[in-house]
Amino acid sequence: TLPQACDFTVFGGTGDLALRKILPALYHRDLEGHLPPDTRIIGVSRSEIDDDGYRAEVRAGLETHLAPEHLDPDAVERLLGRLHHLCLDSGSGEGWHLLHDLLKDRPHADETVRVFYLAVAPRLFGPTCARLAEIDVVDERARVVMEKPIGHDLASAREVNDAVGEVFEERQIFRIDHYLGKESVQNLLVTRFANTFLEPLWSSRWVDHVQITVAETVGVGSRGGYYDHAGALRDMVQNHLLQLLCLVAMEPPTYVGRENVRDEKLKVLQALKPLSPEDVDRDTVRGQYAAGLTAEGPVPSYADDLAGPETAGAPDSWTETFVALKAEVRNWRWAGVPFYLRTGKRMDRRVSEIVVVFKEPPHAMFPGSEGVTTANRLHICVQPDEGMRLHLTAKEPGPGGIRLRPVSLDLSYADAFDQRSPEAYERLLMDVIRGNPTLFMRRDEVEAAWSWVEPVLARWADSPERPRRYPAGTPGPYAAAALLERDGRAWQETD
Ligand code: BG6
């Protein structure tokens, strides 16, 4: 239920994430009248600006990041009126009493839900929480929100979780994986469990394999400082792709509750077959984009993108900007069914998609149909064109015998629902305010995902082979195609 009042504090309040995602999301919810009436938004950063200076920055941010038709002057003023700014350094103790005074100095301070959003570097998560405890603003209604990356391996993830866990109980900790807030990702659960016809087919009995692709056309942009220490496996696979895999593979929970969906996802992560060093060599591919020609025109290589002021002198990076791998969920439902995952930057198209490829019909009964592939495929498109497409085989119209032709049943959400799909952050931030953690990653999930990813990181770190170069604007290195060809399969590209 919605609280009466909320103080929403954003550490990193002038940063890119705050201006691009968090504040526009709060604006939309405010526009629709969904924020608690008495909500204040407190931006915290090291910038020496006052409330008005912050309002000006946020106004500019909203004007840049929101579509003009969504900018309602009254709603913008209302949101700006909620804003405050405090200049303080998460690393040092200075200035923290200001936050204490601001949070305590309001009507009904003791009944206000305090949200602390840590949109800062992960090394500051623990220290920031410790300061919040010191200034005595963490009560049982308080919540903390963390962005990924939560650690860079299992041990560091545990450290972060321990440090935050010193101050907040697990029920108060909201770890964001923004993929879980996407409408089409939530719809995956509904598609699977609110329809009867799919579920009986959803197993190794009828499914040949599953493909999960998150392809981006953007490069590393200005995030080289972070990205070069992370790479695609940590940045995308450990979280977004494994979460998608969990939603595809999980067992039906008895109801959609705060713990039981997460319990089922955890079981999937725990059932992932651990990868031995030989498995890593055989079943994973890492790539790095080279200069190439994209729809935007020619673009530089990853190394050249890195050569900004922050990372100058480190152009010979072995960081991967592309990963393809083969995983297996070792349980009754999925034994023997490969899950092929791939993600990359500077690929030829932007698409996030899950493809479930069913087995061929057991018997080819139509004359001339031997050897013709008629396997059904269900494409679940997460973005950019949210929808679903079921590939079937039909008879080509005509009097002369039976000729088989591929056809598709298409569902486009934009056509089916005449309403704006809210951004992932809108849903997730409201869930934080309401105190509903269902769509957030629990500590055990994050750590199970790291446990599975770690042997890959370790093997790659030891390998004398550098990531394979692929020209920007292409589907990634050839080895990714070969990974499937070896198994007699191919990546299903959306047409
Ligand atoms: C983020 C990654 O979590 O997800 C980025 O850090 C990536 O590198 C982004 O670009 C992709 O998100 P979306 O919603 O644009 O698919």
Automatic annotation (TrEMBL):
- What reaction is this protein's catalytic activity? D-glucose 6-phosphate + NADP(+) = 6-phospho-D-glucono-1,5-lactone + NADPH + H(+)
Domain Glucose-6-phosphate dehydrogenase C-terminal positions: 189-492
Q: Which residues bind substrate?
A: H178, K182, E216, D235, K345
Instruction: Say which enzyme class the record assigns.
Output: oxidoreductase
Q: What keywords are annotated for this sequence in UniProt?
A: Carbohydrate metabolism, Glucose metabolism, NADP, Oxidoreductase
Q: Name one Pfam family in it.
A: G6PD_N
What stretches pass through the bilayer?
none
Glucose-6-phosphate dehydrogenase NAD-binding domain: from which residue to which, for each copy?
10-187
Residue positions annotated to bind NADP(+) are R46, K148
Q: What is its EC number?
A: 1.1.1.49
In terms of SUPFAM superfamilies, this protein maps to: Glyceraldehyde-3-phosphate dehydrogenase-like, C-terminal domain, NAD(P)-binding Rossmann-fold domains
Its annotated pathway reads: Carbohydrate degradation; pentose phosphate pathway; D-ribulose 5-phosphate from D-glucose 6-phosphate (oxidative stage): step 1/3
Q: Where is the active site?
A: H240 (proton acceptor)
Alphabetical list of InterPro entries matching this protein: G6P_DH (IPR001282), G6P_DH_AS (IPR019796), G6P_DH_C (IPR022675), G6P_DH_NAD-bd (IPR022674), NAD(P)-bd_dom_sf (IPR036291)
Instruction: Give the family this protein belongs to, as stated in its UniProt record.
Output: Belongs to the glucose-6-phosphate dehydrogenase family.
> Function of this protein?
Catalyzes the oxidation of glucose 6-phosphate to 6-phosphogluconolactone.
Q: Which PANTHER family match?
A: GLUCOSE-6-PHOSPHATE 1-DEHYDROGENASE, GLUCOSE-6-PHOSPHATE 1-DEHYDROGENASE G6PD
UniProt protein name: Glucose-6-phosphate 1-dehydrogenase
Which gene carries the instructions for this protein? zwf
